[in-house]
Write a structure and sequence with these properties.
With 113 residues, this protein is mainly alpha-helical. Helix content is 65%, strand content 5%.
Length: 113
């Protein structure tokens, strides 16, 4: 029974890995056709940022026009929400208004770095 479970699990892992390779290949094709390869490579030069995170950052960037880098950070929901009042210094939190998947990828990149 345990041997059967191990074989099924190994088969599942192989299928999952082949699907992952197909997705990465498709992403590379789309990035190349869109002319975004240079920007993706530039993002990948940052420690911890891999191909998938770089593609997410570049595609998020081309979704809008941003007046500054702060506007892009706010678009991603990575800007701080400040809760100050008078002399009281409140807690700082991320606004989390942007794409949660990009924030998750950036968190993973930071942990990898």
């Amino acid at each position: 029974n345990e041997v059967f479970l191990k074989e099924a699990f190994n088969s599942f892992i192989k299928q999952f890995e082949s699907l992952d390779l197909l997705i990465q290949k498709q992403l590379k094709t789309v990035v190349r056709e869109a002319g975004l390869t240079e920007q993706v490579v530039r993002c990948q030069k940052v420690e911890g940022i891999g191909f998938l995170t770089a593609v997410a950052l570049v595609t998020a960037f081309i979704r809008g026009e941003f007046r500054s880098s702060d506007a892009y950070i706010a678009f991603l929901g990575m800007d701080l929400k400040v809760a100050d009042s008078g002399q009281k210094s409140g807690r700082r939190r991320l606004t989390k208004r942007g794409c949660s998947e990009v924030r998750r990828l950036l968190h993973n990149a930071a942990m990898a770095a």
